[in-house]
Specification:
Blueprint: H1 5-26, E1 44-51, E2 56-57, E3 60-61, H2 62-77, E4 80-87, H3 98-105, H4 114-122, E5 126-130, H5 131-137, E6 149-151, H6 154-163, E7 167-169
Parallel strand pairs: 1-4, 1-7, 4-5, 5-6
Antiparallel strand pairs: 2-3
Helix pairs in contact: 2-4
C-alpha cells in the first residue's frame, strides 16, 4: 500500500518540528523571540528570603543563588534595594564556619556555601541566622561565618521585616 500525500505531509511536518526542537535545544542562543506582556520597572525593592528549608537545583541552594542574582540585577539597575536572607531550622547550618560545619554535618570538607555567603555579604545582602536555631543546635556567634548577623528569632524577624515593607520570598 502506497502512503497518501496527506500521511507523507504529516510525517514531514512532525520531522520538521522535531528537527527544529533539537536545533533550538542544541543552540540556546537561537531561542525564539518572546513578547513581554507585563513589563516590570521597579523603583525600589525590599526582599527577604525565608531560608527555613532545603531547596536545591543539583548542589546549588536555590535561595542563595536567587539572592545573588537579585542583588546583581538590582545593583546594575541603579534602584534603591535591600535583600535579606533569614536562615533558620534545617537550613541554619549553611552559615556555619568550616569547623562548626564539619562538626554539624559530620564531614571534613568545610562549608561548601562559604564563598557564596561571603560574596552575598560583600554585595550588600543582609545575612542573618536565627538565635533560636543556634540555641537548639548549641552554636555560638563564633561558629558563624564572618559578617553573619544573629536575630532573636527568625519568625518574629520575618514579621518585623514585612512590617518594614519587605516582600517575603520562600525559595
Amino acid at each position: 500500500m502506497k502512503p497518501s500525500r496527506h500521511s507523507i505531509a504529516l510525517v514531514l511536518s512532525v520531522l520538521a518540528a522535531l528537527v527544529s526542537h533539537v536545533t533550538l535545544a542544541a543552540t540556546p542562543d537561537a531561542a525564539p523571540e518572546i513578547r513581554i506582556d507585563v513589563p516590570v520597572d521597579l523603583k525600589h525593592a525590599k526582599v527577604v528570603f525565608n531560608m527555613d528549608h532545603l531547596a536545591f537545583s543539583g548542589d546549588t541552594p536555590i535561595g542563595i543563588k536567587t539572592m545573588a542574582v537579585m542583588a546583581e540585577r538590582f545593583k546594575k539597575s541603579g534602584i534603591e534595594w535591600s535583600v535579606a536572607g533569614v536562615f533558620q531550622g534545617v537550613a541554619g547550618y549553611m552559615l556555619l564556619n568550616d569547623d562548626a560545619y564539619n562538626q554539624a554535618r559530620k564531614i571534613k570538607t568545610g562549608n561548601p556555601y562559604k564563598a557564596e555567603i561571603e560574596q552575598l555579604i560583600r554585595d550588600g545582602v543582609i545575612v542573618e541566622e536565627c538565635g533560636v536555631t543556634m540555641r537548639g543546635n548549641r552554636w555560638t556567634n563564633a561558629n558563624l561565618l564572618p559578617g553573619v548577623k544573629v536575630n532573636t528569632g527568625a519568625n518574629f524577624r520575618l514579621v518585623d521585616l514585612m512590617q518594614q515593607g519587605y516582600v517575603m520570598l520562600q525559595p
